[in-house]
């Protein structure tokens, strides 16, 4: 299996993306954790961002906001 590079930066990202985790899903989609932008991004099979979760570490309740593109 080879290595590939994909742009996962969203227009609303304020920081350079820093991907700290990747999870390939059975349906071919991919989850990536973007540390600097505090988001979990869902990529489709063409590696385009189709939705994301904003992760706010300052919220003790663990609440996340879900956005679909």
Question: What is this entry, summarized?
Answer:
NHL repeats lie at residues 11-46. The chain contains no helices and 5 strands.
Task: Show the helix and strand layout.
Blueprint: E1 19-24, E2 30-34, E3 39-43, E4 49-55, E5 64-68
Antiparallel strand pairs: 1-2, 2-3, 3-4, 4-5
Pfam families: NHL
Keywords: Repeat
NHL repeats: 11-46
What report would you give on this structure?
The chain is mainly beta and 69 residues long. The protein has a domain of 34 residues. The protein has a 5-stranded antiparallel sheet with strand order 1-2-3-4-5, with no helix packed on it. Strand 1 and strand 2 form a beta hairpin. It starts with 18 loop residues before the first strand and ends with a strand. The mean pLDDT is 87. InterPro entries: NHL_repeat (IPR001258). It holds the Pfam family NHL. Keywords: Repeat.
